[in-house]
Amino acid sequence: MGWHDHNAWGVLVVEKFSQVFETTPVTGTTSATLVDVVQQIEWTQAPTGGTLDFSWPPQREDLVVDHYGTGNPWVTIQARAAIPLKAPFSSGYRIVRTLTPVEARETGRWSRGDIVRVRLEIDAQADMTWVVVSDPLPAGASHLGGSLRTSQIATQGEKQQGQAWPAFEERSFEAFRAYYEFVPKGHFTVEYTIRLNQSGQFQLPTTRVEALYAPEMFGELPNEPFEVQP
Fold first, then answer.
1. 8 A C-beta contact, residue 144 and residue 155
2. Are residues 144 and 197 in the same domain?
3. Average pLDDT of adjacent 10-residue blocks, the chain of 230 residues
4. Does one domain contain both 203 and 124?
5. To 10 degrees, the CA torsion angle through 9, 184, 181, 194?
6. Does residue 111 lie within any of the structural domains?
7. pTM score, two decimals?
8. Which of 11, 67, 109, 223 would staple 204 via disulfide (CB 3.0–4.6 Å)?
9. Structural domain for 29, as ranges
10. Residue that finishes a domain, picked among 35, 68, 101
11. For residues 212 and 218, what is the distance between their CA atoms, to the nearest angstrom?
């Protein structure tokens, strides 16, 4: 049974539950209170529900949710905190990142002008539609792979492996991003090539894989400071 079949069964179960236990329509007001901040959803204005956002409190506090009206609305609570990631985290995707020199001035260190092959190996725990892979670039680095002959030579050997193939790729000055319309359960890899154009020590954000329509399915990999010699 595939992912789409499981999804269909889930829809039928929810519909059956609603027919038995949720015959009364939702009306009135749902309020949420955190510390001294109160936010509300008026069901006459938002019959399909909505999202309430609160700032993270300075210490542990209780979130109080009340409903005034008919029916029994569902509540989903998600907490996000800006805590530095110290170790790889997997909630659906596991990431391994490898850097390989294509052209390097010195062995064992990165120097300005070096060409680097970045390889991302990803294990997906479930079939999922629309998945994005995002990998940061050190400042000043440039993507290779355009029409110039030197770029074509440098990018020879790039590999895409597995049953996941990107619908399109975004190569910005700050990151490489690959968007997949469908990623099946299993292992896949993606590679890209960059040139290091600026020396210095660079703090890089995390490498991240996320299902766009199921944000609880994601994986993150912290990156060590990246040093480029002059």
1. yes
2. yes
3. 48 61 82 91 86 86 91 80 81 96 92 95 95 95 67 54 84 93 95 95 94 90 94
4. yes
5. 160
6. yes
7. 0.64
8. 223
9. 3-68
10. 68
11. 9
